[in-house]
Amino acid sequence: LALYFHTGEREEKCIIEDVPSDTLVIGNYKVQRWDVHKHDFLESAPGLGMFVTVTAPSAEVQMSKLYGPQGTFSFTSEMPGEHIICLQSNSTRFLAFAGSKLRIHLDIRVGEHFFDESAVQAKDKVNEVKLGLEHLIEQVHHVTKEQNYEREREEKFRKTSEETNSNILWWAIVQTMILISIGIWQIKSLRDFFISKKLV
């Protein structure tokens, strides 16, 4: 997931990432500040940091940390579900003057592991192949975990759908019985009325 969005200083922006349990999530971000003279976003926002907060599906704060204007954060999910990732600048200016527009570039990768660059650049081809295989195995484990998580979600959704359909069916049967009962009662009432008036 790679995106960018605009926000004001001290304004909190959040995204929701649905991840399986025991999965590494890595986020890279860069903050740019709007320059009123150049009418463009500067390449960097020196002196401005970002608070990154991650809230687990249980509403428990899993991570809360202050980073610089550009950085990388990571966390491992403890349970499956929607994790809320929030970013907020640490502007020290008064709220009334903290109206500068910011652009935040955000790249989130789910299930990827930190790759050892020094090992990749090693001249020993055996180590390179071994590292590549380990990385592939990790990717296979992640795909399997993701498929199991999606299967569990699909099973839960199917169960909910079947329960809803069953409830709708019973409600339709009850409605039909009520309508038939009302119809029979109306016919009997009309028959009694006609008999009492000696029309039949």
UniProtKB/TrEMBL annotation:
GO terms for cellular component: endoplasmic reticulum membrane. It is a single-pass type I membrane protein. The chain crosses the membrane at residues 168-187. Keywords: Endoplasmic reticulum, Membrane, Signal, Transmembrane, Transmembrane helix. PROSITE patterns: GOLD (PS50866). The keyword NAD does not apply. It comes from the Eukaryota. It is found in: Endoplasmic reticulum membrane; Membrane. Belongs to the EMP24/GP25L family. This is TMD11 protein.
